[in-house]
């Protein structure tokens, strides 16, 4: 999540990463890129029509990037596909792409880096409405540092507050179930009662990211 899996600098070690994902067919891996045009040449030799434990996402921060990247995404051989509109710096419509039935999840969130550009709540609501119409899961993870609502701009410097404000917006939506058919090292399907079950702490309840989060890692920083 802190980089781009398909950037050129990763070419020398990506095969090692694929090998880990190949061996750990019991673990879901979330891949994110703004370089979908490089993906086909970077897939492993035994990829076929995709591995069941890989969730592939492209970033679409505005309409221009959405129209560049989503058609490529739809043409790529992945079993699970998603869109991340983050940093969300311009209105995006993806209705025409959702109609293909391939997109399982849409995430959006405002920008929170130095010199952050504004995120407008009207854009968020419009994107959410399109996802609801297609019954696709939608998650508003954070407002960003500069957030516009009802024509008023708010400055929200803390990421925790950004996430809580996104949660309070009450726009997250659970669409069609996403099924990952995970297997053990022998290729045997893992029973439902043996799959990882996420758990959360009390301070997770008002987090905008909870809908798509794997839960607490027990890092010890919370009390």
The number of helices is 6
What is the N-to-C succession of helices and strands? HEHEHEHEEHEEEH
Radius of gyration: 18 Å
Give the termini distance in whole angstroms.
26 Å
Classify the secondary structure makeup into a structural class: alpha/beta
Low-confidence stretches: none
| Order of strands, widest sheet | 1-2-3-4-6
Which descriptor suits the 3D outline? globular
What percent of residues are in strands?
15-25%
Q: Helix coverage percent of residues?
A: 25-40%
Give the overall pLDDT as a whole number. Answer: 94
Please tally the β strands and state the result: 8
The tally of domains stands at 1
Largest sheet: 5 strands, parallel
Care to give the gist of this entry?
The protein has 223 residues and is α/β, with parallel strands linked by helices. Helices cover 26% and strands 18% of the residues.
What secondary-structure arrangement, pairings included, does this model have?
Layout: H1 11-23, E1 29-33, H2 39-42, E2 54-59, H3 63-75, E3 80-85, H4 95-98, E4 103-109, E5 119-120, H5 121-134, E6 137-142, E7 146-149, E8 152-155, H6 159-168
Parallel strand pairs: 1-2, 2-3, 3-4, 4-6, 5-7
Antiparallel strand pairs: 7-8
Question: Would you mind describing this structure in some detail?
Answer:
This protein is α/β, with parallel strands linked by helices and 223 residues long. It has one domain (8-212). Helices cover 26% and strands 18% of the residues. It contains six helices and eight strands, in the order H-E-H-E-H-E-H-E-E-H-E-E-E-H. It has helices spanning 11-23, 39-42, 63-75, 95-98, 121-134, 159-168, and strands spanning 29-33, 54-59, 80-85, 103-109, 119-120, 137-142, 146-149, 152-155. It has a five-stranded parallel beta sheet with strand order 1-2-3-4-6. A three-stranded mixed beta sheet has the order 5-7-8. The protein is globular and about 55 Å long. The mean pLDDT is 94.
